[in-house]
Write a structure and sequence with these properties.
The complex is a heterodimer of chains A (402) and B (46). Chain A has 402 residues and is mainly alpha-helical. Chain A contains 22 helices and 2 strands. Chain B is mostly helical and 46 residues long. The longest helix of chain B is centred in the middle third of the chain and has 42 residues. Chain B is rod-shaped, with a radius of gyration of 20 Å. Classes of the chains: A mainly alpha (402), B mainly alpha (46). Chains A and B meet through α9, α10, α11, α15 and α22 of A and α1 of B.
Chain lengths: 402, 46
Amino acid sequence: MNVTNVLDFFPGIHSFILMEPGNAIIRILLVLVGMSLVYLGYKEKLDPLLMLPLGFMMAVVNAGILIMGEGQMGTLFVDPMVSEPGKLLDALQINFLQPFYNFTFANGLIACLVFMGIGAITDLDFFIARPFLSLSLAFAAELGTLLTLPLAVALGFSFKEAASIAIVGGADGPMVLFTSLMLAKHLFVPIAVMAYVYLGVCYIVYPYLIKLIIPKRLRAIPMDPMEIRSVTSSEKFVFAIVAGVILSLFFPVAAPLFASFFFGVAVKESNIARFREFLDILLSGSTLFLGITLGALLSVTVVMDPKVFLILILGMVALLLSGIGGLIAGLIACKFSGGKINPLIGIAAVSCVPTTAKVAQHCAMEADETIMILPHAMGPCVAGVITTAILCGIYITLVPLF
Amino acid sequence: MGDVGTAFRIIILAFVLGLFTCAFIGAVILILRRVTSRGKEGVEQT
């Protein structure tokens, strides 16, 4: 028995030896990054709900690469590139995550299910109480969503690809999934994975951006939570129905997203306990499978795509620009209100409910331990979801016309 | 691959459409506020 025969007993290790050295190094790095994400999720430095399944599967899928037929490297998790009917049928019967990928990812269903679940836990009180302030801040916090598009085009991406990358600036995973599936299906995997990893990183990066732009005395401006007027449940219910219908009328291509989100809100406000409990479980289940499938998609074969590096940079630029836009709008709101509005609520307008609102509260408490701006930050945060969905609808409608 | 000039035209159009839609949604909220508060007054009167 020679060495090659012994290695045949360990296909994972054998595939390491047969790989090009560069790919093998990146494969090891991806395993380590995956394990780090699991640890950071476990320690709650990053969002554990997403990072635990994503990081774990990312580490495992890169460890479990083996040599398939015809000398090709692959895994028994999922093959996102397979499209030919015969091969797809084989993949569905062999790869254990293939059914999830094809029947929930590739058609945008998972994005809609997650969005429905988010709708069912979203409180519209603070948004409806101050709609114009919330929407103004949220629209300013779409700066990255807008400016990244021409930037990506300048770097050689098509309009559709650029729009899919730019929507990362809206900091809403379901919207990124939906847009990339509608406009640039071939880049869906790297864009979606990058977006979700970056949304977790918002926790770490945005506090530095805040300290860079907002002086400490402005971060310590108190905002009385009791100032927010009470909003009745019927007001929120009627708004959810009307907004869902109007936005679906304006942008039919994004209607599944609007329908999912506002249906979730309507279920919450109608207070039907059975539906609410089901949507709660649905959100947990969808997030779990989203994390698992995204992690499994993050194999070395996907990361080695030459476009991925540019997508990584553009995604970060989009999120940073959106953060800057939100904070500048927060400073303007602070100035116009005569110093009554804490500019930190601008960062919450980037959306990513409720992460950015929590970041705003955390940074405010660093400046002054006694202040509570979270209720005020939730208004722009929820408005950010709505403005991102609107821009998603506009891009999906507009970009194919050029 | 597209050109940067057209990309800017797309985002200017997206900005205007987005702004209009946001203003519309804001106006809808204000109208609904009036309608629902009037409804409440009606219930109180009866």
